[in-house]
Amino acid sequence: MKAGLFENLRDAIAAQQACAVVTDIDGGQQCLVGFGDDVGDLSLNEAHVQKVVQMITEDVSGQIEDTSLFVRVYGPALRLIIVGAVHIAQALAPMAQLAGFNVTVIDPRDAFVRAGRLSDVAALTDWPDDGMLKLKPDARTAIVTLTHDPKLDDPALAAALRSDAFYIGSLGSKRTHAKRLERLREEGFSELDLDRIHGPVGLDIGAKTPSEIAVSILSEVVATRRRAAA
Amino acid sequence: MHDVDADPLDRLAEWRSSGKKTALATVVRTWGSSPRPVGSHLAVCEDGDFAGSVSGGCIEGSVIEAALETIASGDSARLEFGVTNDMAWEVGLACGGTVHVYVESIV
After folding, report:
1. How do residues B60-84 score in pLDDT, each as one tens digit?
2. Chain A interface, Cβ < 8 Å to B
3. What is the distance between the alpha carbons of residues A163 and A51, in angstroms, rounded to a whole number?
4. Considering only CB atoms, which chain B residues are within 8 Å of A99?
5. Are A39 and A32 in contact (CB under 8 A)?
């Protein structure tokens, strides 16, 4: 790989811009697709460009069939927004970071954010609806509410439902969740909307401790993303 | 906190900025049971330092060797590994598979 192409690729990744490096693995020629002007010494025909663009959209790397062209897609990082700097967040945030997520915790309660010892995690002390407005969740974003407090969880869930977030989860017992859905229904959300919320949150692995619950939540987030792509 | 999947390119950039020669190995095709998906990177520095992985560990040594050769030659190389049942056993896989790796120097 030429140094210039590598630097462009790094810029694209830093800019959170989905792109792909296409390599002719027979000849070694390469180009960068999806960021700035295409850079490199490989020229693609129209059909191959279209295929590469499709692979970028689907976030799938691989060889283009019947060619020596290998496409390595670099998607922008997945994001996880956690509402509530509570005990579970202390475990979930670093676990999700290890799994490749950009994590942001929203909690307007300063004391919780400080007590949460989330020094390596981006934290917003906005109210959840303001925080969501800033973060603009998209189809590569997962959102988990952990506060149990309707004042904080409900506006976050409403904002989540108005976004394309690929995963929405909300901590709380079956009873808490039923009441929560009732309130959101009154706000005008349809059953189809409400079906998007995973509640009680997480895969049923019998989790008891905060870190076990974090494992179950992260597992459900990963399963939702990977199974949807399969 | 590091994203272990994004790490290799960061490390590669660090080595480059300290004036070292580098190479990048990428899984381009897998068949059967393979521990790392297509697109996985292993970054290699001329001094033998490396980051990332293209397998569960069983072919890393050979890939690093090939990477050091491409650093010396400024070239690229295609490697193919049949992961034998023995090797697969060592890395905890139930059965073998094939891994194709593309290795290129960053020049």
Report:
1. 899 999 999 999 999 899 998 876 6
2. 1-3, 6, 9-10, 13, 23, 25, 28, 61-63, 70, 72-73, 77, 94, 97-101, 120
3. 28
4. 3
5. yes
Per-residue pLDDT tens over the stretch A141-150:
999 999 999 9
| Nearest beta carbon to residue A3 from set B6, B26, B106 | B106
By the 8 A CB rule, do A129 and A65 touch? no
How many A×B Cβ pairs under 8 Å?
60
Q: What domains are defined for chain A?
A: 3-74 (no CATH), 78-229 (3.40.50.720)
Residue type for position A103: V
Task: Give domain status of residue B1, yes or no.
Answer: no
Interacting residues of A29 by C-beta distance below 8 A, sequence separation 6+: A23, A40, A41, A42
Residues in chain B: 107
| B39, two tokens | 């697109």
Is residue B48 within 8 A of residue B61, CB to CB? The reply is: no
> Which domain covers residue B16, as residue numbers?
7-106
A63 vs B13, B28, B76: nearest CB: B28
Structural domain total, chain B: 1
ipTM score: 0.86
A3 interaction partners in chain B (CB closer than 8 Å)? 16, 106-107
